[in-house]
Specification:
41% of the residues lie in helices and 9% in strands. It is an alpha/beta fold and 246 residues long. Helix 3 links the parallel strand 2 and strand 3. It comes from Methylobacterium symbioticum.
């Protein structure tokens, strides 16, 4: 029987016996070829691609959780041979060592817990002196970080940057498809449509939903269908949970 339009080949097309579902982490794919570009992130992607022709030593990349900041930072780190540390890893004792590498990614500067503002300001100054590029990622804009150190706040305000916006419909659908492909799952386009129509416009939320669907389908020993997707969304408190039967 020929494969109908809109159907992607399904590796779990037949229903195997009920299986145990284990919470095994799926390593994210942070290669350049894995980053999907759309209107929501094209400015940020262009800025990363422009390196080393950056307008400043320090660049701030902002966007909601799960929007692709770490992916872009990883792409740049690979090109610049940069080290990557969380903001909590920037301390008075670590500044000299971190700057010595010549390029650095500092992730999640919006996380106040463990954030040493004096050390961060000192690092940015040392990096500028050594002309060592620093890429900072944040889930919130600089003015919403609640920084107490005026000099640091001023320094970050002056730093050029790019914001990743909420994905448009095309990008969200493309990311959902890729999330299934990364898990070696292929589903009917009706499933993609159902998810894209109901979930928040958040790439992080898309990852959560696909992960839950994968786990649920494996536990039930059945393929992922639109009714199953709607049932999982309803259980997660997303959408109406109504749909056609298999």
């Amino acid at each position: 029987m020929p494969e109908r339009d809109g159907m992607i080949r399904l590796m779990r097309d037949t229903a195997p016996p009920k299986q145990l579902a284990f919470d095994l982490p799926l390593d994210p794919r942070y290669g350049r070829e894995d980053f999907l570009v759309g209107p929501a992130n094209e400015a940020a992607y262009a800025l990363i691609e422009a390196w080393p022709d950056w307008p400043d030593t320090v660049l701030v990349l902002t966007g909601p959780p799960g929007s692709g900041k770490s992916h872009l930072a990883s792409i740049w780190a690979g090109r610049a041979h940069a080290w990557t540390v969380p903001v909590s890893g920037v301390t008075g004792e670590s500044v000299t060592h971190l700057v010595s590498n010549g390029a650095l990614v500092i992730e999640d500067i919006d996380r106040a817990e463990g954030r040493d503002e004096a050390a961060l300001f000192h690092l940015l100054n040392r990096a500028r002196e050594r002309k060592a590029p620093v890429l900072l990622t944040s889930a919130r804009p600089v003015d919403a970080l609640g920084l107490r150190t005026a000099d640091l706040r001023s320094r970050l305000r002056l730093a050029p940057g790019a914001e990743i916006l909420s994905p448009d419909d095309a990008l969200l659908r493309a990311v959902i498809v890729k999330l299934f492909v990364d898990r070696q799952l292929v589903v009917d386009l009706a499933v993609i449509d159902a998810l894209a129509l109901r979930i928040d416009r958040s790439l992080g939320r898309a990852r959560e939903v696909v992960s839950e669907l994968d786990r649920d389908a494996l536990g039930r020993g059945r393929r992922i269908t639109k009714p199953l997707a709607l049932a999982v969304l309803e259980r997660m408190g997303v959408g109406e949970g109504e749909g056609d039967e298999d």
